[in-house]
Amino acid sequence: MPRRPHDRCRVCRRGDRPRRNPRRRSLRRNDDRALRGAGRPAIHRAARIPCRLARAGGARGTTLGVSITLSEAESRRVVSRYGVPVSPFVTGTSTAEVLAAVETDASVTFPVVAKLCGRAIAHKTERGLVRLRIADNDALAAACDELLSKAVPDDGEVEVLVSTMVDGNRELIAGLNDDPQFGMTVMVGIGGILAEAIRDVSFRLAPITEVDAAEMLDDLATQRLFGEFRGEPEADRAAIVEALVALARVGVEEPGLRSADLNPLILVDGKPIAVDALLEIEEDDDA
């Protein structure tokens, strides 16, 4: 009996997936590479498009309004609420407030990194608003004083974010983008200083399943980085998959989200930890 068109939407909602043969999977990956080379995200699951349109009443992004960029602290709180792993952090608007927060929160341990953050501050490194490997409270107090002194009127409201220092030899990047034609897309790729040079990335249309996320990792060309590397254990693919599925949920469920950037996701003992996050959202007209 032929399947009715709306049955396909029910299949998408249930998450049922048809069996795929290796040849079709290879063709899909070739298409992915071609679209990435043209600067467009690959949309492998066209059957999901009618589902998204039915939920949203039309393609997201077709009537875009004014957007705002959340601060790093706000962005971290949003993604962590959905289960994306982020490095432990506290914030404060004064040196005393920061020191008290660090003293209270046992999850934030030295050495730490301190950053001045606010909605109008996007390029912290270029402005010298980041301090790394702070060893103790005295050094942290000095760093907070210095960072707060660098704030300018155009920055608006600012605060100091203090996070546990995270080290690792391997980095990933991950993100979301609300495409005007297809809706929310999820991206993962190889990060680090060579990210822009090698452009090893993979895309899917949100929402994604664990199988989708695993395929995204399989699509990446730099597979050697997922094995044992420079004394570190092999990457925990299941943990990375879980983080990607959680990130996709942010794109589907967070109201007004335009884009998200997790750069980098550092692999620590093989597991991903986001040490920076930036979200762009549609501004609420009633705000």
Task: Itemize the secondary structure elements and their pairings.
Layout (H helix, E strand, L loop, with lengths): L4 H10 L7 H16 L10 H9 L10 E3 L2 H10 L7 E4 L2 H10 L7 E6 L12 E5 L2 H13 L9 E6 L6 E9 L3 E8 L4 H4 L2 E5 L4 H10 L17 H17 L3 E12 L2 E4 L2 E6 L5
Write structural notes for this entry.
- It is built from nine helices and eleven strands.
- Helices cover 34% and strands 24% of the residues.
- It is of the alpha+beta class and 287 residues long.
- A hairpin with a 3-residue loop joins strand 6 and strand 7.
- Among the domains are: 77 residues, 2-Layer Sandwich (Dna Ligase, domain 1); 116 residues, ATP-grasp fold, B domain (D-amino Acid Aminotransferase, Chain A, domain 1, 2-Layer Sandwich), CATH 3.30.470.20.
- Strands 1, 6, 7, 8, 9, 10 and 11 form a seven-stranded antiparallel beta sheet that branches. A four-stranded antiparallel beta sheet has the order 2-5-3-4, covered by helices on one side.
What is the CATH homologous superfamily assignment of one domain?
ATP-grasp fold, B domain
Helix content: 25-40%
Order of helices and strands: HHHEHEHEEHEEEHEHHEEE
How many strand units?
A: 11
Low-confidence stretches: 1-28, 40-63
CATH topology of one domain: D-amino Acid Aminotransferase, Chain A, domain 1
Radius of gyration, whole Å: 21 Å
CATH architecture of one domain: 2-Layer Sandwich
Bulk shape: globular
Average residue-wise pLDDT? 83
Biggest pleated-sheet summary: 7 strands, antiparallel
- What oligomerization state is this entry in? single chain
**CATH class placement of one domain:** Alpha Beta
Which class of secondary structure composition applies to the elements? Answer: alpha+beta
Strand content: 15-25%
